[in-house]
Amino acid sequence: MTFEAGATAKPPTPRFSVVVPAYNEEKDLPRLIDTIDAARASYGRPDAIEVVVADNLSTDGTGAVAAARGCRVVRVEKRVIAAARNGGARAARGEILCFVDADARIHPKTFRAIDDALATGRVVAGATGVRLERTSAGIVAAYVLILPLVWLTNIDTGLVFCRREDFEAVGGYDENMRFAEDVAFPWALKRLGRRRGQKLVRLRAHKAIASLRKFDEYGDWHYVTMLPRSLWLLLCGRGAWNDWVDRYWYRPNR
């Protein structure tokens, strides 16, 4: 093969793109990147995995920290978590899209496990699930409340993955949703897979570690009390509801 003078070789298409939505994550992001680097080394093909940080209007050094660690940084102007996930996905070049929160940590064998799952042809998408970085009575109670939904739907959290073409087929994350977009998205993939005889999968042996900073900020029992409180706020009207959503999801203490 020959190249014309001045031509540059096109970089190879990554196997995986890890998309990280980020708002003011300069503190926790390096810890996640450390675990992605370990998983990249374990996979054995470092150039097969890229990291795309979708900087969602951070006011700290998130973008600089990500760039210094070799991540591609994309600035997403729409301050909605779903928009950040979609913005990162649009910039990503990988065949398989992976989505993980900036305060998580992933298992070192994550990418090999995803390869093995998708190679069966029976899987449309999946998630790793999570282990909790600490426990308490309140945290366990919250976990027990969520667990039946996971069992019934097979929808889980942690690092979520799918093929790029399937992401596009379902339209990505719903940007009209200011939260719970990470539930609606795998549900859409589940419907897509059902038509093709495919299913969602949970990589139980390769769980990510979930941050509990919301519990650190609001208290270990806050999730249990939040459910009835959210129903009350719905009855109070859109203004009260939107204010609560802003405070809980979009004005974090960082």
Describe the secondary structure blueprint for this structure.
Layout: E1 16-22, H1 29-43, E2 49-55, H2 62-68, E3 72-75, H3 81-91, E4 96-99, H4 110-119, E5 123-127, E6 130-132, H5 137-153, E7 160-163, H6 164-169, H7 181-196, E8 199-202, E9 208-210, H8 213-218, H9 222-236, H10 238-250
Parallel strand pairs: 1-2, 1-4, 2-3, 5-8, 6-9
Antiparallel strand pairs: 4-7, 5-7
Question: Can you give a write-up of this model?
Answer:
The protein has 254 residues and is an alpha/beta fold. The chain has a single domain (16-217), classed as Spore Coat Polysaccharide Biosynthesis Protein SpsA, Chain A, CATH 3.90.550.10. 46% of the residues lie in helices and 16% in strands. It is built from 10 helices and 9 strands. It has helices at 29-43, 62-68, 81-91, 110-119, 137-153, 164-169, 181-196, 213-218, 222-236, 238-250, and strands at residues 16-22, 49-55, 72-75, 96-99, 123-127, 130-132, 160-163, 199-202, 208-210. The strands form 2 sheets. A 7-stranded mixed beta sheet has the order 3-2-1-4-7-5-8, sandwiched between helices. A two-stranded parallel ribbon has the order 6-9. Strand 2, helix 2 and strand 3 form a beta-alpha-beta unit. The radius of gyration is 19 Å and the shape is globular. The chain starts with 15 loop residues before the first strand and ends with a helix. The relative contact order is 0.15. Mean pLDDT is 92; it is low at 1-7.
